[in-house]
Model the fold of this input.
Amino acid sequence: MSSYDVAVIGSGPGGYVAAIRCAQLGMKTAIIEKYATLGGTCLNVGCIPSKALLDSSHHYEDAIKHFDTHGIEIPGEVKVNLEKMIARKQAVVDQTIGGIDFLMKKNEIDVFQGIGSFKDATNINITKEDGKVETIQAKNTIIATGSKPSSLPFIKIDKERVITSTEALKLKEVPKHMIVIGGGVIGLELGQVYKRLGAEVTVVEYLDRIIPGMDRACSKELTKVLKKQKIKFALSHKVKSVERNGNEVVVKADNKKGEEVTFTGDYCLVAVGRHAYTDGLNLEAAGVKQEERGRVAVNEHLQTNVPNIYAIGDVIKGAMLAHKAEEEGTLVAEVLAGQKPHIDYNLIPGVVYTWPEVAAVGKTEEQLKEAGVDYKVGQFPMRALGRARASMDIDGFVKIIADKKTDEVLGVHMVGARVADLISEAVVAMEFRASAEDIARMSHAHPTYAEAVKEAALGATEDRSIHM
Ligand code: FAD
Ligand code: NAI
Done:
């Protein structure tokens, strides 16, 4: 029987990064993946394919709506070839997955394809597609089995018309009317893809605002812009039934007043969150405990109640984000190597890749209010930037919240073009515990979107933004 210092179950961004870091630190490492391709949700049916479709649909929208203003005339009709668009997305996915195969070889990590399940705390069975079982021994195991889409008890996901994000990434036609249940990250990103491609899109959200975990100012701005893009919103609506009749999907919900509202479309995307995935792991055989919502329970070292078994990523508590899973993979590898790593969860940024993008790090204004922290705010609109006017991306703002007494930056919230990349400046600043004045005094290249960060910092420092 093969034996390893570490076995990683699951090859998403948590698992494959953990495996690479373990190998870098000199551990003999195996990775077990039940699917034929490595990379997990993120690479196969998550981050990468959704961004590929967001980019393609954005180009189309620019061509039909904005080229003319830029003085670019296209003779004839601009058309979407959905099949080709989806094929390009798949090519991007395949190339990215190929990169992970290469990294496994480079780091001499043994890859096992099959379902990993605990025989006991140190032996793992790997069940192959043909039913054959191979057992490996591992001194330590890292559970990185990720998450699956959640649904509502009364919804039957038929994967044809009533779908999750996985099916929405490979539709064969542009829906006429896509009803999206859930105004969170998936609903808005994929809703925007199909809106751009010509679908009518209605987002039905239970709460009174979209992207409810983010600063209220971001929710408000994004709602305003998406409404301008003709996405419809039914906020404070409690969905109570989803029925499919042939090619038609009927969604019924109760509005705030308790009145029944009916939405009729040809596709319904259910995007109401995701839940930890541990099916088939046979956690009981190893004695690993779970907590609420099926998550694997871990301590601050991401160690389960069984000392040689750790867990990372979507399968444990915290934000379900690829970069959070990656940091946790690195942390566990370094803990196993006897190091003392640390993750500051407050500094894990969150991004929504709609256009305009939304990005945030640190505390929201609501959280600071609730905690009774005395704070001040500097906010600068994108439309006041030369760069934003040049590209006609004038929606959004940068908002910096700083401690009223010490001026330390406590939270940064942004809506606008390329803020997914801009947020890194805020993460760096907060990691080094910068004050708003520190950012305000740094030179920012002109003309860039980053100037909005400087201007917001100036605003937070002494209400002295220059260009407003
Ligand atoms: P996963 O990526 O889910 O990987 C788990 C792997 O474990 C899977 O490959 C699974 O097959 C395997 N597995 C499970 N059980 C077993 C078993 N018993 N044996 C062997 N293998 C097993 N996050 C971002 O940060 N940015 C984004 O832009 C973003 N976009 C997203 C878009 C969509 C549509 C979706 C659905 C998600 C998106 N996410 C994004 C979230 C991101 O994909 C997850 O947070 C991330 O993939 C979690 O990584 P993980 O390693 O914990 O698990
Ligand atoms: P989400 O948690 O972002 O949003 C779910 C939304 O559905 C919430 O607004 C919630 O209030 C709403 N909702 C819940 N129950 C409802 C009901 N009964 N009726 C109507 N609305 C209801 O979850 P989502 O969008 O499914 O994404 C899952 C995870 O994937 C997220 O946690 C996110 O972290 C990750 N992801 C990250 C992305 C990114 O980083 N850009 C992109 C896509 C997904």
Observations:
- The chain has 14 helices and 22 strands.
- The longest strand covers residues 133-143.
- The pocket of NAI (ligand 2) is lined by residues 152, 181-187, 189, 204-207, 212, 239, 271-274, 319-321, 351-353 (CB under 6 Å).
- The mean pLDDT is 97.
